[in-house]
Amino acid sequence: MDVAILAHEQFPDRAKTAVGVLRYADHDVVAVLDRENAGRRVADFLPDVQDAPIVESVDDVPEPFDALLVGIAPIGGGFEESWRPDVRGALERGCGVVSGLHYFLEEDAEFRTLAAEHGGDIWDVRKPPDDLTVAEGRAAEVAADVVLTVGTDCSTGKMTASVELVAAADARGIDAAFVPTGQTGIVIEDWGIPIDRTVSDFTAGAVERMVRERGDDHELLVVEGQGAITHPAYSAVTCGILHGAMPDALVLCHEAGREVVHGYESFPIPAVSDVGRLYEDLARPVRETSVAAGCLNTATLDGDGAARDVLSEYGDAIDAPATDPVRFDADEILDPLL
H-helix or E-strand containing 148? Predict the structure, then answer.
């Protein structure tokens, strides 16, 4: 599928859905919409993903495309009215629109009418199934080893680590699968349940449902974590995933140099060793597990040598092997997870 990605004023640092699609999705990206960087190219910022021109609006997309994908999700998942002309323009061209916002575009009267008139589909990725139930505490019964990525904060690389771990396992001949729980992973995999949109009572049940659906068909499941157990706003979804997945092992994800919670800068991130123990202690009444490995985003560091030094310190702090799965290789931490 050919897609254009909307990422106004956020690309690339705060456009994790856009970057995830560029790096991992089986889509051809024909353009990225970003008013601040129009005239440049993706490769000017991200040399290790597929390249595309950056344009000012949907009217400037240089070729036909199948769908406009909203590649950013502000805190709270709201819709910015400045995006309306681009969504409107895509629908008027008969294109689909894919959105991971909490604001459902399908329920917007203008967008719904345009989609019907011009034949474009709207996919609100964050709309969960209607038949979710509470967990039964049975995820541990599956045949696969279950690994859960957890974090010290939001946007610390949990989705990236999950995808890279599955790829590393596949390269070894291990039958592995990715269990997506957030909008970016769902767009990449074309399945999943948006856990941060489920009714609280059904959060663990939604994760358990996905683990049980896939757990007997694979040797390894890597469940994508969300938020952080220490996050002042998103800890509830984190706990639900932890208890619903009943993981055999945890991978603790962190960004090098990050000391405070993004968007909540008055809240410091605790020591990574303390965060790891919190996850283990919280999981224990439901499922004994441990932080068996770590993933560290070292993108802000210059040179592999500096990154290796920081990774060594991080591994010592969490008492587990650690890597940057993008700069280096997720295979480095695969053994302790199996």
Answer: strand 145-151
Tell me which residue has tokens 């406009």: 68
**CA distance linking residue 177 with residue 272, whole number of Å:** 27
Architecture of domain 2-124: 3-Layer(aba) Sandwich (3.40)
Q: Residue with structure tokens 């992973």?
A: 185
Predicted confidence at residue 74, as pLDDT, reads 78
The CATH class, in words, for 139-337 is: alpha beta
Are the beta carbons of 230 and 270 closer than 8 angstroms?
yes
pLDDT tens-place string over residues 161-181: 999 999 999 999 999 999 999
Q: Could you report the per-residue pLDDT of 305-331, keeping only the tens digit for each?
A: 999 999 999 999 999 999 999 999 999
Count of all residues that appear for the chain in the document: 338
Q: Encode pLDDT of 9-51 as tens digits.
A: 999 988 989 999 999 999 999 999 999 999 999 999 999 899 9
With beta carbons less than 8 A apart as the criterion, state whether 336 and 321 touch.
yes
- From residue 125, how far is each of 102, 184, 234, 260, 261 by CA, in Å? 9, 9, 19, 29, 26
